[in-house]
Amino acid sequence: MLMVARLGLRPTATSSAESQPISIPRSRDEGALLAARLTNSKQHLCIYTDGSSIPGKGVGGAALSRTPAGTIIMRQYLGPTGEHLSVEGEIMGLILAMKIVQMVPDLSRVITVLCDCQEAILEVTNLSPKHAFLVERFREAVRVASNLKQIHLVWVPGHDRLELNESVDKEAKRAAGGDCRTSIISNGFTISLASPWNLNDNIRGRSV
């Protein structure tokens, strides 16, 4: 059985149901208010994700979260724009969110993943996804996150002056330009690590 199905992830159009596994607000204003409320909630550990496609360069995804250990930023380059679609970068951002989950030892709070691409959110919960290879990578990351108790996927409007959403947008652009680093920022210091895994050779040419 699919892990997302076991977690009970099903699309729900709602503007305020913070307990729903998937929240897709009806308007940009409602989405911005929900995102702000979740980000400021002590019951939620929020991870912002984004994907980017730069013509002539490439496609990549990123995830960013302010955790008790510091701010964690993960980036992954997928490949050239001729071989990948922008939505694949968005799905990659969701995969990286699950990699951040694996880096946080104590997850007493609900994991809330905020993404500005409804297509990507619906794709990872689709029983017959168009981008099956990447979606399976997301589901695999969910399966191995043994400390994950509850996940909440939320659509957040892009370019709506939400600080962390704007920040992860910049990181996704860096990923699309070839940046595959993971950065941990704590107490004024930044630690940079290599890509969490070698995906480039495996993903290349698999877009549909």
TrEMBL record:
SUPFAM superfamilies: Ribonuclease H-like. Residues 41-177 form the RNase H type-1 domain. It holds the Pfam family RNase_H. It comes from the Eukaryota. One of its GO terms (molecular function) is RNA-DNA hybrid ribonuclease activity. InterPro entries: RNaseH-like_sf (IPR012337), RNaseH_domain (IPR002156), RNaseH_sf (IPR036397). This is Ribonuclease H-like domain-containing protein. It comes from Favolaschia claudopus.
